[in-house]
Design goal:
about 400 residues, alpha/beta, Rossmann fold, Tyrosyl-Transfer RNA Synthetase, Structural Genomics Hypothetical 15.5 Kd Protein In mrcA-pckA Intergenic Region, Chain A, 3 domains, six-stranded mixed sheet, five-stranded mixed sheet, 18 helices, globular
C-alpha cells in the first residue's frame, strides 16, 4: 500500500495535537516501518457510552482518527461498554456512577452510527471491550493488577487531589486505567488517541503493552473542547454540549451562543482545515464576530445534516430572534380538559423534565403563553378550540388547544 511521505504524515498528525508520547521520533519510526512494510498502523480511540449521545467534544479526537484513515491507516473505534460499568474518574473529584451492562450496551448502540458522520464506516473496525474484558477471570485481574503499583496510580492528578483532600477513592477506580490498558494489550494497536484528560490512561496502556511483550503504543493527546458556556469542557452533564444528534436548529442556535473568544478555537478544531471558507471566517472574527459566528454555525449544522437544513436553521433563528416571530410550523397538542396547571402542561409537552424544572423556568420568566410571561407557578391555563402558543425558553414552541367546546 502506498502512503504519503513520513514528513507529510507527521505534519498532518501534529496539527492541533497537544502531545505525542513518548516523542515524535517514535511516531516517525512507526510510520517509516509502516511505509516500508506496506502495513497500515492500527490507530485506537475508545469512548465509554456513559450517555447515549456523542457531542462535538468527541469530534475533536474523531477528526484526528479520520485523518489517520485518510493517510491509509486502520481506525479502531472501541465502545467501552465494560469500562463504562466501572466509571472513568478522569478529571472528577468524586467517584462516578457505574452503569449496568444493559445501560452501557444500550448507550453504545448508536455510537458507531454517530461516529460515522466523521469516520469512513467502511474503513473503521468497531469493537466492544466487554468481548475480552468480560472473559477475564479473577486470577487474570489479580495478574493484571500486579503490573501496577498504588504509588503509580496516585501519580494521577485527580487521584492525588482526592487523596490529599481525604476524599474517598474506591478500589474499582484503580482498575479503570488497567482495564482500558488491556484494550491496547488485546488489540496490539500502534497508536492510541484521547483527550488531555486521558493522558494517564493512555500511558498505562503503553506500559501494559510493554509488560506483556508488545511494542508500546504512541499516545497522542488532543485538546478538550470548551462548551457553550465558555468555561468548562463540553459535557452533557454540565448542559454546555452540542450533540451530533441535535436538530440543525438547536445546533445552529447553540453555536451562536458561544462566546466570541471561542470562534477561532471552534473553527480550528471542528471544521476541516482544507475548506476555503474557514479562512474567510477567520478574517471576519475581529471585524465582524457576529458574521463569523453565523458562518461557523451554518458550517457545523450543515456538516451534521445538510446545507439545506443549515439554511433552514438560520432562517428559523432569524425569525425567532431577529424578527421576533413564532415559527411557521409548531406541533399541536390537544387536551380533553378545559384548563390545566402550567407546571403539568410543561411536563406533558416535554418542555420540562420535572416539576422543579418547570418551577425554575417560570421563576426565570422563560415561559410565555401567547407572548404573556407566566409569573405564577400555580396558574391555570384555560384551553379552547382556538390554539394558544406556549413558549418555553428561547427556542421551544408548542400549540395547545382543547378538543371540544365547553
Amino acid at each position: 500500500m502506498h502512503f504519503p511521505s513520513v514528513k507529510e504524515q507527521v505534519d498532518i498528525i501534529e496539527r492541533n495535537t497537544i502531545e505525542i508520547l513518548s516523542n515524535k521520533e517514535e511516531l516517525e519510526k512507526k510510520l517509516t516501518f509502516s511505509a516500508q512494510s506496506g502495513k497500515p498502523l492500527k490507530i485506537k480511540f475508545g469512548a465509554d457510552p456513559s450517555r447515549p449521545d456523542l457531542h462535538l467534544g468527541h469530534s475533536v479526537v474523531l477528526r484526528k482518527l479520520r485523518e489517520f484513515q485518510d493517510l491509509g491507516h486502520e481506525a479502531i473505534l472501541i465502545i467501552g461498554d465494560f469500562t463504562a460499568m466501572i466509571g472513568d474518574p478522569s478529571g472528577k473529584s468524586k467517584t462516578r456512577p457505574q452503569l449496568s451492562a444493559e445501560e452501557a450496551r444500550e448507550n453504545g448502540l448508536s455510537y458507531f452510527e454517530q461516529a460515522s458522520k466523521i469516520l469512513d464506516p467502511e474503513k473503521t473496525t468497531i469493537c466492544y471491550n466487554s468481548d475480552w474484558l468480560g472473559k477475564m477471570s479473577f486470577a487474570d485481574v489479580i495478574k493484571l493488577s500486579s503490573h501496577y503499583t498504588v504509588a503509580r496510580m496516585l501519580e494521577r492528578d485527580d487521584f492525588e487531589r482526592r487523596y490529599r483532600g481525604q476524599e474517598p477513592i474506591s478500589v474499582h477506580e484503580f482498575l479503570y486505567p488497567l482495564a482500558q490498558g488491556m484494550d491496547s494489550v488485546h488489540l496490539k494497536n500502534d497508536v492510541e488517541l484521547g483527550g488531555t484528560d486521558q493522558k494517564f490512561n493512555l500511558l498505562v496502556g503503553r506500559d501494559l503493552q510493554r509488560e506483556y511483550g508488545i511494542a508500546p503504543q504512541v499516545c497522542i493527546t488532543m485538546p478538550l473542547l470548551v462548551g457553550t458556556d465558555g468555561k468548562e469542557k463540553m459535557s452533557k452533564s454540565l448542559g454546555n454540549a452540542i450533540c451530533f444528534n441535535d436538530s440543525p436548529a438547536d445546533m445552529y442556535g447553540k453555536v451562536l451562543s458561544i462566546p466570541d473568544t471561542l470562534i477561532a478555537t471552534y473553527c480550528k478544531l471542528l471544521v476541516p482545515h482544507t475548506e476555503q471558507s474557514i479562512a474567510e471566517i477567520f478574517e471576519q472574527i475581529t471585524e465582524n464576530p457576529r458574521a463569523a459566528k453565523r458562518a461557523l454555525a451554518r458550517k457545523i449544522a450543515a456538516f451534521y445534516s445538510s446545507e439545506e437544513a443549515a439554511q433552514d436553521a438560520e432562517n428559523h433563528f432569524d425569525q425567532l430572534f431577529i424578527h421576533k416571530k413564532a415559527p411557521d410550523h409548531i406541533e399541536l397538542f390537544e387536551f380533553d380538559e378545559q384548563s390545566i396547571p402550567i407546571i403539568d402542561l410543561l411536563m406533558t409537552l416535554g418542555a420540562a423534565v420535572s416539576k422543579s424544572d418547570a418551577r425554575r423556568m417560570i421563576q426565570q420568566k422563560s415561559v410565555l403563553v401567547d407572548e404573556r410571561k407566566i409569573e405564577e407557578i400555580d396558574e391555570l391555563i384555560e384551553l379552547s378550540v382556538e390554539p394558544k402558543i406556549i413558549r418555553a425558553g428561547k427556542r421551544r414552541f408548542f400549540k395547545v388547544a382543547s378538543r371540544k367546546t365547553f
